[in-house]
Amino acid sequence: MRESNQSMTLDFTLMSLFSHSGPHLVLFSLVATIFTMGLLGNVILLFLIHTDSRLHTPMYFLLSQLSLLDVGFPLVTIPKMAVDFLQEEDSISFEGCTAQMFFLMLMGVSEGVLLSLMSYDRYVAVCRPLHYPILMRRQVCLLMAGTSWLSGVLVASIQTSITLHFPYCASRTVDHFFCELPALLKLSCRDTSAYELALSVSGVLILLLPLCLIAASYGHVLGAVLHMHSTEARHKTFTTCSSHITVVALFYGAAVFMYMVPSTYHSPQQDNMVSLFYSLITPTLNPLIYSLRNREVKGALVKIFGKAGFGSKR
């Protein structure tokens, strides 16, 4: 009990990605710019989906949930990293570290589940179009969104609470730029090998089950596309689905590297770069991927700018 109480009263020290040298100042400015672009892109996409009636469909409702997650992901890590860099302070309280770990796990699991449910939406739209209004009615969409968020809350609550039961009485320096579960476990005084094994098994299940659903859905979609006689219909289907497949590849590629590849095969520096990629780059790219390759989103954007231009002329 004393070890546990002691671990809860001390701060952790996070690893800084940047020094105050010239090249690192440029990199910091680049990260800040990408962070701002990502937030702006996702907020614009949320605004378009909310205001344009043509985007009030199940696919765009699920996409709005993805944008919400992509707003939250970088907000958990990047502002803290920026403040630490500007103030030359790398510490984080036990409570702050707990909050970071919980919300990152919540959003990571939720996004993985949501991406698999979005693939099911594409399967129904392409392979069972006549049943689409029934199979993807509003209640089903709300259930899908609720399932993704609740699965994230459940996994994050369980894994965070278990992790906090370990005492942290050795080094308080986290070999990461934010509090991530594997990096924290390395600081525990107790043997965490059994929990790490259970964590790896659960991580594989959490990643593989949604991936299996995605693979099954797009396997059926591919078969349907190959049997389409209309070139225009085939092109539209390919454009819509390829956007989602690209997002899936970006998210799961980083997740598989972090949680399925044994830690002996990648260094802490590589972990930091991959974590920066999935917590900053991927959320920034997602709205660009969906807007640049999607006719409806581009049409809604042109409509908004057209109204703004017309209003300014008047």
Automatic annotation (TrEMBL):
Keyword Transmembrane helix: yes
Membrane topology: Multi-pass membrane protein
Transmembrane domains' residue ranges: 25-48, 60-79, 99-120, 140-158, 204-226, 238-261, 273-292
A Pfam family per the record: 7tm_4
Protein name: Olfactory receptor
Organism of derivation: Catagonus wagneri
Chief location: membrane
Compartment(s) where it occurs, according to its Swiss-Prot or TrEMBL record: Cell membrane
Function: Putative odorant or sperm cell receptor.
Entry GO terms, CC: plasma membrane
Keyword terms of this UniProt record: Cell membrane, G-protein coupled receptor, Membrane, Olfaction, Receptor, Sensory transduction, Transducer, Transmembrane, Transmembrane helix
